[in-house]
Every structure is written in C-alpha cells, then in structure tokens.
Amino acid sequence: MNGLNEINADDLIKQALKEDITSEDITTCAIMREKVSGRAELIAKADGVICGLEVFERTFKILDGDTKVGFLVKDGDKVNKGQLLAVVTGDIRTLLSGERVALNFLQRMSGIATYTAEMVKLLEGSKTKLLDTRKTTPNMRIFEKYAVKVGGGCNHRYNLSDGILIKDNHIGAAGSIKRAVELAKEYAPFVRKIEVEVENLDMCKEAVEAGADIIMLDNMSVADMKKAVALIDGRAVTECSGNVTRENVKAITDAGVDYVSCGALTHSAPILDLSMKNLKPIK
Length: 283
Hints:
Blueprint: H1 6-20, H2 26-31, E1 37-44, E2 48-49, H3 53-63, E3 68-71, E4 78-79, E5 84-91, H4 92-122, E6 129-131, H5 141-150, E7 164-166, H6 168-174, H7 177-187, E8 194-198, H8 201-210, E9 214-218, H9 222-232, E10 237-241, H10 249-253, E11 259-261, H11 264-267, E12 274-281
Parallel strand pairs: 6-11, 7-8, 8-9, 9-10, 10-11
Antiparallel strand pairs: 1-5, 1-12, 2-4, 3-5
C-alpha cells in the first residue's frame, strides 16, 4: 500500500471486519441467496481532501479478491460535493457487507487529511511546520498518521519506542529536568535526540542548559513563547503544543517556533461525508 505497511494494515482491517460481521451479514444473506455481480458508486457528499482509497479498496478485497475498484481520484486530491470518486464492482454480497467498514476508514482518514490541509494553509508564509501527536484513535494510528501526511502535515514520533520525549511526569519521577536529561543521555544511543516539554521560562532555561535537542513549549502564551525562542537562541529545535486549533494556530506562528504539534488533527477532525450509492446488478 502506498505509504502504509500492508501487513499491519491488513490485520487492522480484518479486525474491523470481524467487529462488524461476527458470524454473517444477516440482512445481505437474507436478500441475496447467491452470487450476483453488481456495481456501486463512491460519491463525495462534501468538499475536502480524499485519503485512504487503498484502505477502502483493500477492505473489499479481503472479503473477496475478485472485487474491483476503479478510482477517478488519488489520495491527496481535493474533491467536491457530488463528485464521483470511484466505481466498485463485484459480488453484490461483498459490496453490501464491506460498505460500512470501507467507508468508516475512508471518511475518517479523509476528514483528518482535510483538517490537516486547512491547518497547513494557515501556516503558509511562516517557517513553522505542523506535527501530529500520539492522540490517535486506538488501533487507528497507522491510518491516522498517514492521513496527516497526505494532508500536508508532518509526523511526530509514531510511538513510545520511536523517540525520547521527557514530559512533566517524567521530570517529576527523575526529580529535575537536568537529571532526566542526564538519565536519557546515559541510557539512549547517541543518535537519539532528546526532547523536553517545558511549561515556563525557568524550565526552558533548565532544559537548554541540560542540553536538550528539542524543547517543547507547552501551553505557554504567545508572549512567553517569543521570550522562550529568544532564550533558546538556536541552541535547540523549538516546538509548541497545547490546545492548538484552526482558530489559534496563526497567532502561534508569530512566536517563531520551528514546529507546532496539534492533537486536534487526529482527535477532533470531523469525518468527510462520503457515500456508496446507486448499487445495481450487472446484467
């Protein structure tokens, strides 16, 4: 799959199908007693950025490898309300049974890509880049982080094994920022960068002096972020976080941070409304 690990994606798609079809699709089995070939149309019901087309297709192919999807768009394309996006052909029983799961993936991923694209546009003209977070739907991270990239954003660490991020509770456990950074440097390979989350200018100064590679300015005012960026003075990469939304991201860029991380990309993006319509037998 383009940009996705097919083995991991397949496992998660199968889990979603098992959730939706415990033993059988009783409605479809009742009205379709035998194989009949058919076609259905995938239609956009709202404007947005499409994402997850291969996951959509794979959902049907896991149920029946003979299913075919003819796409008229590709991931990352802007689509408009009423636009025909694809034609799905195959056993009508497969089209009916796979429809909801396939649409759930596609709508969710497209919604994230759309929201991300809107945020990225707000950052145009600044040096600040947009990051996602680990605030993802359980078992959907591989799809949701892919959607962020399709929307023009960047991925932060994928999971806890992917990078060192010392947060407030880590600092509390270690006793200080200085000690937490010392322990991280002692434990981790030298190629690993160390990021420290700070909440005020005193913590920021301590993180710089401790040798943090990246300093995350968490829930700080724009005025304090500007002071923090000046204090850091290029000695570490800067990132800001904390309740970043479409409404306030533009103001944050004025602080001059390198990155802004936004949990809303994955936990608050509305779905993009899509539909499978006009299912008909093929004679």
